[in-house]
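Try this one yourself first.
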């Protein structure tokens, strides 16, 4: 069976991306990163729950402690407040410097080791909120770099099945594929009940509302 590395944060987008990989006939090797994010414990639980639902046999849980040293993001530096006033123009303070570039580099090393032909990542341009590492242009560029910097026999395709979808389309596609969205976690701030007011919660809730569907995870504010 063909194999794919799936970068799986435990959020809605990466989860749907992983289910799409399974639906496309790939044996999944799941990769999760603990990088000092505020909701690290809750995201790890979501990752493990989703891996169990997908019956994934091989998974990597990788610690990347240096992101907290670098800081410069509200997700990894607790002295910076997570914004709750709605999405603003430009690169937001929740952007983690070159996070997806680092994730994809590690995923590429795993893909080369495991002889997989694809990496799935759930980047979404609409959801990027100005994140420069969530664009199709970035993915195309780093794909070239990865294939240049690996063995000649290594040919890795980075698949971004959600990149042009809106959040409501993601919700509807997830329902179509029986994705257990109640197991996923998107909140930037909280681990018990989602805050409902950070950018990620707002995007998620708006997606469910436009899709005319109920989000079954608990929220402090709806």
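Now uncover the answer:
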């Amino acid at each position: 069976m063909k194999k794919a590395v799936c970068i799986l944060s435990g959020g809605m987008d990466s989860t749907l991306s992983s289910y799409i990989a399974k639906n496309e006939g790939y044996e999944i090797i799941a990769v999760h990163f603990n990088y000092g994010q505020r909701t690290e414990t809750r995201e790890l639980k979501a990752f493990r729950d989703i891996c169990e639902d997908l019956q994934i046999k091989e998974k990597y849980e990788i610690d990347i402690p240096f992101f907290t040293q670098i800081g410069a993001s509200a997700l990894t530096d607790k002295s910076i407040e997570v914004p709750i006033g709605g999405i603003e123009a430009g690169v937001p303070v929740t952007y983690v410097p070159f996070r997806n570039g680092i994730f994809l580099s590690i995923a590429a090393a795993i893909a080369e080791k495991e002889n997989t032909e694809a990496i799935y990542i759930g980047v979404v341009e609409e959801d990027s909120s100005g994140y420069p590492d969530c664009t199709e242009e970035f993915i195309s560029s780093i794909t070239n770099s990865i294939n240049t910097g690996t063995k000649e026999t290594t040919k890795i395709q980075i698949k971004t099945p959600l990149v042009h979808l809106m959040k409501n389309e993601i919700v509807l596609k997830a329902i179509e594929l029986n994705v257990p969205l109640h197991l996923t976690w998107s909140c930037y701030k909280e681990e018990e009940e989602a805050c409902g007011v950070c950018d990620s919660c707002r995007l998620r809730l708006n997606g469910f509302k436009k899709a005319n569907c109920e989000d079954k995870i608990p929220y402090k504010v709806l």
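Discussion: The mean pLDDT is 96. The chain has one domain: 3-185.
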